[in-house]
From TrEMBL:
It comes from the Bacteria. This is Helicase. Residues 73-82 have a biased composition (Acidic residues). The keyword ATP-binding applies. Residues 73-103 are annotated as: Disordered. One of its GO terms (molecular function) is helicase activity. Keywords: ATP-binding, Helicase, Hydrolase, Nucleotide-binding.
Amino acid sequence: MNITAFTTDLHIAGHDLPGISVTLTSSPRPPRPPFRRLDIDINTVIELLALVEGGAASAGAVRDMLEAVVDEVEEADEEDRREDEALRQLRSTPVPKAPARTPQYDTRSVYLVSSEAEPKIVKIGVSKDVPGRLKSLQSGSGSPLTVRWTSTGGGLLESRLHDHFATRALGGEWFDFTDVAQPVAMIAKAARRLLKNATVVEVPT
């Protein structure tokens, strides 16, 4: 059931009836049988009857005028309904999420280094020249150092491995794996998981 109240100006047979209060009641859709009823104030009805009685306008002309008013109002109502439906559909349409960015790892090598004396105290570092880096580290170590494992992945992989094993951090990129039977295998597995579906890019020299 649709009920629309509005004010309009009526024009018939050279007569103007301004500012007429009108209420349209209609049922344009099932399950109710369609009908339309136009209610106007009593003074307007009296004026219209007087025009018909005086011969200034025919009953058919009055009916056609009122039906035209109804058609105009219903057309406006239907346009409002279409706009409301379009707005509801727009609000219910999910906003597509931006595609997840693929992590980009660089081609520098992530390495694991530990000493012969404490093989499970491991340094997780990154370098473009692992042998040169090992030589530099060895100069400050009292025990021979060995490279246990390397992988591409650069600074991003190094940082993520540091975060992943943060509870084992000793400081200075050194980590304690003394409670692990095979620390290299554990770190390599974590690196493979982090590198899965990643893009590797060259680092500018």
